Amino acid sequence: MRYIEIGPEPYKTELIIKRLIGNGVDLTSYIGLDINPESEKAMRLALEPVVGKQRFSYKINDYNELQSSSFGFHDGITVVTMMGFQEGNELPRKMLRILKKLTSKGDLLLSEMQLSSLAGWKPIIDFYSLQPMKQFSQKICERAQLKPAGQHRIFLTPIETELGPVMTAATVIPYKLFDHHRYLLTNCCLKYTKDQFRAARQKENDFQIVKEFFSGDQTVAYQLTLRN
Question: Which of 210, 211, 4 is nearest to 104 (CA)?
Fold first, then answer.
């Protein structure tokens, strides 16, 4: 099995890969894809001891610019993963187009989404209130060569998409420029309902849902689909 990861995360990926190997999966190669060159070192440290140096490879690129042939030919099962809510960073039609390009017929796609759920908005507010999310906003501000003037603030608002209104979480951080207080958008992520997450994948019949998994509180969905 070949494992391709879009937007790698060392801790989460190490757990998944270890579980796969522990269950007898023959992992032929791991390919990480990220636009951030600094992520490669962390992923190598986490995964090379697990998969072996020869089976580890990494691409520093924008996933918008690649297609399935960019990863080379593989005679066997390919699993493509997009974890960490990245799917919510694009509108449904654009993300579907990207995922179609990155996968070939017979590939499995595993993705993750924080949901708008019956649990209300508190789980989403709590997630973006975590210290690592605050630090992320501060880094975005600093990269824009601006000085943060406080912690980020969280907004939830619906936006209109081809799937209908979708709730969107956004964070903005205050900064001061020429004695004027302003705000910088640091994150924006769609939060589908369960039905919207299913509809986003099945909209053009290029993917069929194989299995769905949900966190205990039903606020995070994990979706395994097959590329038709």
Answer: 4
